[in-house]
Amino acid sequence: MSTPSKIENQQKLIQTKDLVFIWRLIRNNLGVIILTPILALLIGYVYTYRLSDVYGAKVQLLLKSNDTYDYQDQIYQGLGAYGAYMDVQNQMRIIRSRDLIGEIIDKMNISTSYYVVGRVRRKEVYNTLPFTTDVEVINGMLFEQPVYVFIQDKKSYRIEYVVNNEEKSIVGTFGEVFINEDFKIKLKKSYSYSAESMDRITDAEYEIVFHSRNQLINKYRSKIDIENLEYTSILEINVLDEIGVRGKLFLDTLTSVYVDYSKRLQLEVNQNTIDNIERQLDTINLFITAKENEILNYKNKNSILNLPKEEDDYFERYVSSLSDKRNLEIKRNALRTLESYIINLNEENFLPPSFEALKSDIYLTQTIKKVYDLQLELKSKSSSQLDNNANIIKNQAEINSLKKDVLIYINNLEGVVVKEISSLDSYISSNRNKIKKIPVSEQGLENISRELEVNNKMYLYLLEKKTNSLITRAGIIPQVRVVETASQLGVVKPDKEKIIRLFVLGGLLVGLFVALIRKLFFEKIQNVNELSEASYLNVVGGLPFVNQKDSKLIVTERPKDQITESFRTLRTNLNYLGDLGNKKGAKKILVSSFFPGEGKTFTSTNVASILSMSDKKVVLVDFDLHKPKVHKTFDIENTKGVSSYLIGKDVLDDVIRKNMLTNLDVITAGPIPPNPSELVLKAKMNDLFAELEKRYEYIIVDTPPFGLLNDGIELIKYLDVFLVVMNTKYIKQKGIRTIENLLSKHDNIEVGLVLNGIKRTRLQYYYSKYSYKYNYSYGYNYGYGYGDTYSDYVEKD
């Protein structure tokens, strides 16, 4: 049952063991946690140093400036499509259009980029290199490929480049044209090279890159940002460029081209109106000239001076009817012209014709204006979007619907006009019959004169409209005004400090992640507490690090040392470990390790020695028949022992070495047999342990590493306690799991863990190097090592 304090600890958000885990994580990986941010800082610095600065520039434009005279406002009303032009959204699309950007690119002459190549990075420059380039690229594969230029002397240069995986090198002369299959190029010196500057110029490496027109258009379209300032018709245009001066030049050129475009559009509308008026004037002028000649001929032929006063009434009504009919015919012609415009409307010809005769028709005027708006919007979208785009399809459908409605309306209106003309024809016919009563000669003259008068009035009317249009043309100004001229904004990106901070933060996170991975999967157990937390097996002791080569029987050589006290504690714990299995202490103890070199022989010999010091009769048996070492610890011969006893060559009394220490006997391994693993399976094993148990209070058995050889596992059935020696140089969480899984199959023996090599200072941990090597070959194919020989391990264990 859990105590209240334990329940309380479980309910805490952060427990003490969590803080201990974090502290160990940081302490054991402090170098990694510190070094990775520093390394990331260096990488971030180099990365940002290689990045090119991107500069910003901006300009503000005011749409539909009101800088006009009062009389011009009335004139502009006759231009029809003026209102649609100033739609802000359309203007934003026009500015981004490929046509407008292409016109800007053509004016700027920036088809070649220039770079100075350094050791770490290359830097783009603008109009500062000692040469300029005029080039016509013939081979399109050369676009966006680096072309290196080396100045050899004051007169010549060398160009190197790669195209189609072929390296090419040419030598040319400044000022002369060079032509090959890739380009036509001429390099010109920007200034005269002095003797003092030649060394600097010839040592430098220059790079030029050619750009196609489409690539430049796409580049600047992606770098333009247009914003309509709230509640105004002001557009703020921003552009990004690697060269600040070039970005400002781009906006200056854009302003010039766009202002010119706004004026050019108005001029096109005005010119269409003037051309239409001039065509009508030419037609009427020919008619007037013919009528004047006809009057002169008629008067000469009939000797007519004037018509009687009473007949003026008939002619006035007749002429008035003819005038009305003429106006209706003009209206009908205008309707037909407008109908032809609607039918043949396309992206290339979308400016509407002048339809002054239909100006009074509000519906028609507004509908034509709306069609023009949509057609203008369609042109803007078509320049920046694909033809199958949903917005373009929707826009085209709306235009077609309006065209259909306009054509129906024009057809109905034309029918009305035709009926009115037919009615006037009847009225004119009636007046003509009345005029027939007038003498034929006078009647003919009056008829011709009236027709002449009607055409003269029409001629004067058209002349007035033409004059107004010409006055309008003279007064046309751009409908775009620069509110704020183009200015540089300085470096806008990248934010190098932010990038470096992100690198450092990323390095810190990587360091923590690596530390966590090392802690969970690769960190070695360093003390008894960590081992207890990591394993459910009993931990019976911990041994501090000592140089085992210099001191083998350390409990006798250094009885007052800390490690000797550790062996005394281990001796006590072994008794308790035996009691856990309902036995009277641990009497038969098997000592082994998972890997070689962990100190199993050192532990077994000193455990046997410390037990003998407590006035207990102890025997130490070396069952490591592959690589025996117990005899070396006691400095005795190994001519007979366990192997010779098991094969029946010697009896037990012959192989026991009496009183190596007080109360301590030793049985060495004996000569190494060709089949050591098979000897532990012999039936004499039972006799051996039965006899030893009769003679001794404690039996200590030293075996080979059970991670590599099965000898130790086979001996489990004869013993009480399995003492597993682990070394801080090797043991990890994963290794503990492996040992637990391996020993979980043997529940008939108590298992105790001993941690060897606990260092007095943790700083040594960060500089330790280790490897898992063990070799039992001896020529008998026990190749568990990694190419090492027996001599490599003679002094390790």
TrEMBL record:
Which reaction(s) does the protein catalyse, per the Swiss-Prot or TrEMBL entry? L-tyrosyl-[protein] + ATP = O-phospho-L-tyrosyl-[protein] + ADP + H(+)
Q: Is Phosphoprotein found in the keyword set?
A: no
Q: What class of enzyme is it?
A: transferase
Q: Which residues form the Polysaccharide chain length determinant N-terminal domain?
A: 18-107
Domain AAA residue range list: 587-743
Q: Which residues cross the membrane?
A: 21-47
Where is this protein primarily located? membrane
Pfam families, alphabetically?
A: AAA_31, GNVR, Wzz
What CDD domains would the database entry show?
A: BY-kinase
Q: Which Gene3D superfamilies match?
A: P-loop containing nucleotide triphosphate hydrolases
Q: Which InterPro entries match?
A: AAA_dom, Bact_polysacc_biosynth/exp, GNVR, LPS_length_determ_N, P-loop_NTPase, Wzc-like_C
Q: Which GO terms describe its molecular function?
A: ATP binding; non-membrane spanning protein tyrosine kinase activity
Known EC number(s)?
2.7.10.2
User: What's any one GO cellular component for it?
Assistant: plasma membrane
Tyrosine-protein kinase G-rich domain ranges (all copies): 447-519
Q: Which UniProt keywords apply?
A: ATP-binding, Cell inner membrane, Cell membrane, Kinase, Membrane, Nucleotide-binding, Transferase, Transmembrane, Transmembrane helix, Tyrosine-protein kinase
The record's subcellular location field reads: Cell inner membrane
Q: Does the keyword Translocase apply?
A: no
Topology in the membrane? Multi-pass membrane protein
Family per record: Belongs to the etk/wzc family.
Q: What is this protein called?
A: non-specific protein-tyrosine kinase
Organism source for this protein?
A: Putridiphycobacter roseus
Which lineage is the organism of this entry classified under, starting from the top rank? Bacteria, Pseudomonadati, Bacteroidota, Flavobacteriia, Flavobacteriales
